[in-house]
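Project standup — Tuesday

K.O.: blocked on the structure for the chain from last sprint. Re-posting the sequence here as requested.
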Amino acid sequence: MTPEDLKPLVRTIPDFPKPGILFRDVTTLMGHGEGFAAAVGMMADKVQACEGQAIAGIEARGFIFGAAIAAKLAMPFIPVRKPGKLPVPVLAIDYALEYGTDTLEVDPGAVVDGSRIVLIDDLLATGGTALAACELLRRAGGVVAEALFLVDLPDLGGAERLRRAGVAVEALLDYPGH
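H.V.: unblocked you, prediction finished:
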């Protein structure tokens, strides 16, 4: 399969979560065995190309893709969690959302000092969550080698925001517009 073969496996839901939004639902791709395996394989190839040493996945769908890639490559997996989910002292970062703030946390013991980390998530929109995760991983001692996404919504500017922050960005699929 090619990335173009994967595109029709991502369901588009109009007007969710609010009117005017085209929601790109990757659960239909995950439910397609061959498509999911192909996406994980393609993303794993990109991780190897950038010489990543660990995978960090953003809760929740970043866990699905990130853990599958880490297992395929026999690499460590670092979960970037929502607040209150880790049973150890954590590093935390608050970040801005469209309406309010949110928090991400990581176990600093999960990050090997100086390791090249590839951040994985399912979808890149404005980049706020990914930027916060990169900062958090850097505070924990990691070097964010790249941010890798299944889907990029380029018109929302997230990839450019990450690049301005010194993070290389790749995505398998892009959907112009939003």
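K.O.: great, moving the ticket to review. The beta strands are 11-14, 22-25, 54-58, 77-80, 91-97, 100-106, 116-124, 143-152, 169-174. The domain at 51-174 is CATH 3.40.50.2020 (Rossmann fold).
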